[in-house]
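User
New here, explain this?
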Amino acid sequence: MSRPEDTLSADVHYNDSEARKYTTSSRIQNIQASMTHRALELLDLSSPSFILDVGCGSGLSGEILSSIPPEEGGPHVWIGMDVSASMLDVALQRDVEGDLLLADIGQGVPFRAGTFDAAISISAIQWLCNAESSDVSPAGRLSRFFNGLYASLKRGGRAVCQFYPKNDEQKKMITSAAVKAGFGAGLLEDDPETKNVKVYLVLTVGGGNLEGKGGDITGVVKGMEGVDVLDARHNNRSGKGEIKKGSKAWIIKKKEQMERKGKVVKATSKYTGRKRRVAF
């Protein structure tokens, strides 16, 4: 069975018919509610917070954010962004409490720095791994999204993104993009090695005071089994040394900058940056 993100972009796939079908399905409602509560458990918010719902769709997750009782740290105020106008139209018809924004997360997160206390995303970010045209790369879309998300969260803020990776390579690509943006990242799998497996990417922005660990991801996933922690922010720091122009490291850095802008660049190989012999 093919995945919808392999054939169409999200704004095309979720037309009026699909948006209504998605929202009225009791099965999808139950799954969405379960994953949203799991994401909130991982966020571990102790007081009402301002939350960004990435890929909010018709507001199924947002309704839960608004209904969290005070004894559980709620209710939360939220803003939802989605690329599907049909999904947002259904959310408006359902009169959800959050504000809604029509936007493509692959083009970034258009909010001021430090706007949100936290962010959640349910079944959305895997759509970034498919480029709609040849001049836009998945790496560039992922980079713009995670860089924008990192900037929009307050220091010490957290984000939990549930997604359905096609394979381990896609899982690695998404996680690497988050780490490169500056996040501390942990991958958590519920019901691993089953057809009902759910993957959660737990992200933190440094500078908080998470159980005395300075906002480190290990404070979020402490005591959880089967969690891979990936955090490259404190690795390979090499003083004030500058990268020599024209070197392999310099070329790779330039390629990464081009990818962030959504450009397609040639793959790095063992020949990258190698000097050519002078031919007479």
